[in-house]
Design a protein that fits this description.
mainly alpha, single chain
Length: 190
Amino acid sequence: MTSMMECDRKPEAFVEAYQHPERAVDWDALYEGFDAACDCPTTMFVERLAEVYPDAKVILIERSPESWYRSMSNTGHRVFQTPIHPGAPEHVQKSLSMARTITWDGIIADPVRFGDKDAMMKLYRAHNENIKKVIPAERLLVVQLGQFGWKELCDFLNKPVPDVPYPFENTTEEFKEKYRQATGKDLLEA
């Protein structure tokens, strides 16, 4: 899997699309070379991407709001509280700046607003419900974090089940290590 932190995927174009939703976006150019996308910035453009790619399938991985908030407290929120290392590659600096700007209007970057746990969990639930509303049921697979594997995904995508264990990645520790490798700096500890 390739992330925006590993290559220059024009994060400034995503900021432009977010700040000016009335303007046309060349989504094909932004996603050139990719078959799939996950997480930020893609999740901030669900409605627009659903219109542009009407045959795309969407996998929504849900978890309890408590678990989501705890995870964001240990990862995303800390990323946004950690100053961007000036020695980090330019595309990494731009990607982090983009994520701070577009992730729910900067709420996760704002320590006061993010500190309102109940409001954040409500926002998370509303985000998931919006995806269920926007994406037609035949194009949407909703699964619970840790409660699915190759069979569910491959059945939904009409692909054969591979003969390898299903990967479990992006734990908090892996996230922190990827951040350190990309930026040359450790995340701030709470």
